[in-house]
Amino acid sequence: MRLTAHTDYALRVLIYAAVAPDGLCRIEEISSAYAISKNHLMKVVRGLGEKGFLKTVRGRGGGLKLARPASEIVVGDVVRKMEDSFAQAECFKPENACVITPACGLKGVLNRAVQAYLAELDTVTLADISRRSDALAELLAFAD
C-alpha cells in the first residue's frame, strides 16, 4: 500500500512536533527541515488541526503543538483520517466497476490486505515512531 504525499507529510509534521524541544514549532521550520513547500504544509497542518492532532498557539511565541500526548496519537488513526481512499484497484470504485467484479476474488483479498495494514498501524503510536527523539532532533536541526 502506498500513502499519499499528504499523509506522508502529515506524519512528518507530527514527528517534528513530537520532538520539538519546547513542544512548539512553526510551519516555516518544518518546511525548511524537510524541504517541503510551505504552502503545501499549510494545507497538511490545517487538516491535522481539523482532525484533532494539532492545535495552534496564538501570539508572539505561537506556533503548532500536538493536541494530545504523542503516546495517545495512534498512527493508524492518522492514516485513516488523512487518506481520502484506500481503493487498491478499479473494482473498489463504483463508477469504474470491472466487468468481472461479481465473480472475482481480488477485491476481497485486497480489502483484507488493507485491513491488515491498518491493524498493524493501529499498534503504533507517535511516541513509538519518535522514540529516538535525540537522533531525530539532531537530524531535524534542533540540536545546538
Which structural category do the helix and sheet elements fall into? mainly alpha
CATH homology superfamily: Winged helix-like DNA-binding domain superfamily/Winged helix DNA-binding domain
Q: What is the molecular shape?
A: elongated
Q: Spans with pLDDT under 50 lasting ≥5 residues?
A: none
Strand content: 5-15%
Describe this structure in words.
There is one protein chain. The relative contact order is 0.18. 49% of the residues lie in helices and 6% in strands. A two-stranded antiparallel sheet has the order 1-2. The longest helix is centred in the last third of the chain and has 16 residues, at 106-121. The chain has a single domain, classed as Arc Repressor Mutant, subunit A, CATH 1.10.10.10. The mean pLDDT is 89. The protein is built from 7 helices and 2 strands. The protein has helices at 5-19, 27-34, 38-50, 75-82, 106-121, 126-129, 133-139; strands at residues 54-57, 63-66. With 144 residues, the protein is mostly helical. Helix 1 crosses helix 3 (38-50), helix 1 runs antiparallel to helix 4 and helix 2 (27-34) packs across helix 3 (38-50). This is Rrf2 family transcriptional regulator. InterPro entries: Tscrpt_reg_Rrf2, WH-like_DNA-bd_sf, WH_DNA-bd_sf. One of its GO terms (cellular component) is cytosol. Pfam families: Rrf2.
Short recap of the structure:
This protein is mainly alpha-helical and 144 residues long. Helices cover 49% and strands 6% of the residues. The protein has a two-stranded antiparallel sheet.
